[in-house]
């Protein structure tokens, strides 16, 4: 199968396949005299594995390290992919149910409790840990995990409630200026909350805000509290960080 056919089959761009070849992640079994890449059935199986890893948030660097390991077991990896995708599906189903109930609540058809409004949100696990490690190093992430690991179930629930409350507060402010006193006060609460279970410098805090917009997974997760919230938080976090770095 030529590169264009393989790209169309997988729903990705030709440039993506070229890049996978350049970094040694997926090298086609054949290249014609004219320079055209030809992908074998084995290549397509490898591409499927790569895309499963990508769907679950793994970086290309991590995928290459995992798949190049002599001990890599394709069947075991697929079984793990299945388990993780089922967990993801269940969480999305719960969020869809919460959205449906919220719409009914807004129409006056049902009455939601405060707890029901936040069913499906779970910040106790970080699906983007690899990106965090690559951007800020293992030590910061390990410190954060260690602090979270020492929390009791009640403390973890209190932290989740605090995070939900901050997100909800920021969502109400998102149509205003990120430089406003109210927005900056709420962002300071967010900065302090993050540093209770990790260590974020002002520079890292600003970078995290940018990641909220650059990574569509972050954007979708945050914007569930209100469309445009991720971009608003990015701007407010940048203002907060810049002001304190200048002072």
Automatic annotation (TrEMBL):
<keyword id="KW-0010">Activator</keyword>
<protein>
    <submittedName>
        <fullName>MerR family transcriptional regulator</fullName>
    </submittedName>
</protein>
<keyword id="KW-0804">Transcription</keyword>
<dbReference type="InterPro" id="IPR036244">
    <property type="entry name" value="TipA-like_antibiotic-bd"/>
</dbReference>
<dbReference type="InterPro" id="IPR047057">
    <property type="entry name" value="MerR_fam"/>
</dbReference>
<dbReference type="Pfam" id="PF07739">
    <property type="entry name" value="TipAS"/>
</dbReference>
<dbReference type="GO" id="GO:0003677">
    <property type="term" value="F:DNA binding"/>
</dbReference>
<feature type="domain" description="HTH merR-type">
    <location>
        <begin position="1"/>
        <end position="69"/>
    </location>
</feature>
<keyword id="KW-0238">DNA-binding</keyword>
<dbReference type="InterPro" id="IPR012925">
    <property type="entry name" value="TipAS_dom"/>
</dbReference>
<keyword id="KW-0805">Transcription regulation</keyword>
<dbReference type="InterPro" id="IPR000551">
    <property type="entry name" value="MerR-type_HTH_dom"/>
</dbReference>
<dbReference type="Pfam" id="PF13411">
    <property type="entry name" value="MerR_1"/>
</dbReference>
<dbReference type="GO" id="GO:0003700">
    <property type="term" value="F:DNA-binding transcription factor activity"/>
</dbReference>
<dbReference type="InterPro" id="IPR009061">
    <property type="entry name" value="DNA-bd_dom_put_sf"/>
</dbReference>
């Amino acid at each position: 199968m030529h590169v264009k056919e393989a790209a169309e089959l997988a729903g990705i761009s030709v440039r993506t396949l070229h890049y996978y070849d350049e970094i040694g992640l997926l090298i086609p079994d054949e290249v014609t005299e004219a320079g055209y890449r030809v992908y074998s059935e084995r290549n397509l199986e490898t591409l499927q594995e790569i895309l499963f890893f990508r769907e679950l948030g793994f970086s290309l660097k991590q995928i290459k390290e995992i798949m190049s390991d002599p001990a890599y077991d394709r069947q075991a990896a697929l079984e793990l992919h299945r388990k993780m995708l089922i967990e993801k599906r269940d969480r999305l189903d719960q969020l869809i149910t919460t959205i449906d109930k919220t719409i009914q609540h807004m129409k006056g058809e049902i009455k939601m409790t405060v707890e029901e409004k936040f069913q499906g949100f779970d910040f106790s696990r970080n699906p983007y840990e690899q990106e965090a490690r690559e951007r800020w190093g293992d030590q910061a992430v390990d410190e954060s995990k260690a602090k979270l690991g020492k929390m009791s179930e009640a403390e973890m629930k209190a932290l989740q409630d605090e995070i939900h409350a901050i997100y909800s507060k920021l969502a109400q402010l998102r149509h205003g200026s990120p430089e406003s006193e109210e927005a900056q006060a709420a962002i300071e609460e967010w900065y302090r909350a993050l540093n209770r279970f990790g260590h974020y410098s002002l520079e890292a805090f600003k970078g995290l805000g940018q990641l909220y917009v650059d990574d569509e997974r972050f954007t979708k997760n945050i914007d569930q509290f209100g469309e445009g919230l991720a971009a608003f938080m990015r701007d407010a976090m940048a203002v907060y960080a810049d002001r304190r770095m200048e002072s």
